[in-house]
Design goal:
Chain A has 142 residues and is mainly α. Chain A has 6 helices and 2 strands, in the order ααααββαα. Chain A binds a DNA duplex (30 and 30 nucleotides) through residues 38, 55-57, 66-72, 74-75, 91-95.
Chain lengths: 142, 142
DNA sequence: AAATAATAGTTTCACTTGAAACTAATTTCA
DNA sequence: TGAAATTAGTTTCAAGTGAAACTATTATTT
C-alpha cells in the first residue's frame, strides 16, 4: 500500500468488511431461517450462554453495541421465552438477564452449528492462516 | 476452537465484523463529516477513480452490493456534481458512469486520507501481520 | 417478425436502525 | 438533606435498507 493511487483491494477496513460479510453468509441463514432470530439476538444468546447472568449494559460493552439494539434484542428474546429478566436487588436500575431452559437449548444448538461453520472456515483457509487470522483479529479488537 | 462450548471470541465471522467496525471508525468520520458522503458513495468513487468508466452493474459486482444501494449512491453523486452518466451507445440499458473533475478531486483527497488511515493500521499491527492479514483477507474474498 | 424471456437500472414499501429524548433509579456534592 | 448530575434501560422519530415490483431496452425463441 505504498503506491500513489488508492486501491480498495489494499484497504484493510474494506477487506475486513467484505470478508466479514462473506464469512457470515451461510451461518446467517441458520439463525435467521432455522431459528428465527436476528444477529443481535444470536449474539445476546451467545453471551448469556457463556457468562450466565449479565445486565444489558455488560452485554452492550462486550459487543460494542448501542443500547437501543440490545434493548430490542432482549425484549424480543423475552417474548420468545428464551430469556428471563429480574430487576437487580442491589441496584434497581439494572436487570439481571439469563437464558431460560429453552434459551440454553438454543444456545447449545446454535453454538454447535457455529462451531461447525467456523471449522469449515478453518478448513478453507488452512489451519495455520486461520489461527494467525484469529489471533490478529483478537489483537485488533483487544 | 475445538472446545465443546461455543465462544464468540473464536468465531471468525464475529471477529471479522468487530475488526471491520473498529478499523473503519476513524475513516468514516472523514468521508461522512469532512466530505459529506456515505460509505456506498465513497466506494463508488473509489471504483470509478481506479477504473475510469464503469456501469452500475460492474460496480455492483465489484462491491458485492445490491442494485438499489448502488443506484442510490450514483444518483446522490450525480446530484452533488461528482459523477456524470451517459447512456451507452451499444446497449441503451447500460449507463456509462465516470467521475467529473470535482469527483476526481474528491477521489484524490479521500484516497490520500485512506492511504494514511491504512498506514496507521499497518503501524498498529506491525508490517508483517498487516501484510499477512491483507493477503488472507484477499484470499477469503477471492 | 411477433411473442417471450432476460437484463440494467429505478421506485415502492415495509422493515430496521441508532441518536436523542425520555423514565426511573442511584450517586454526588453543596 | 435536598438539588443536581449520572446511570440503566425504553421509546420516539427521522433516515436508511433491501427485496420485490416496475420501466425500458435487448436477446432469444417459435
Amino acid at each position: 500500500m505504498s503506491k500513489k493511487e488508492f486501491d480498495l483491494s489494499h484497504f484493510i477496513p474494506y477487506l475486513l468488511n467484505q470478508a466479514a460479510e462473506k464469512s457470515s453468509r451461510d451461518f446467517e441463514n441458520i439463525y435467521k431461517i432455522d431459528f428465527g432470530i436476528t444477529q443481535a439476538q444470536w449474539r445476546v444468546i451467545a453471551n448469556l450462554g457463556k457468562y450466565g447472568t449479565m445486565s444489558s449494559k455488560e452485554i452492550r460493552l462486550k459487543l460494542n453495541q448501542n443500547k437501543t439494539s440490545i434493548s430490542r434484542a432482549v425484549y424480543a428474546l423475552e417474548e420468545k421465552g428464551l430469556l428471563a429478566r429480574k430487576t437487580s436487588e442491589k441496584d434497581r436500575r439494572y436487570e439481571e438477564l439469563q437464558l431460560t431452559a429453552d434459551g440454553q437449548k438454543m444456545f447449545k444448538q446454535l453454538g454447535k452449528a457455529a462451531i461447525t461453520h467456523n471449522q469449515s472456515i478453518f478448513t478453507a483457509l488452512g489451519q495455520e492462516d486461520a489461527e494467525r487470522l484469529t489471533q490478529i483479529l483478537n489483537r485488533m479488537i483487544e
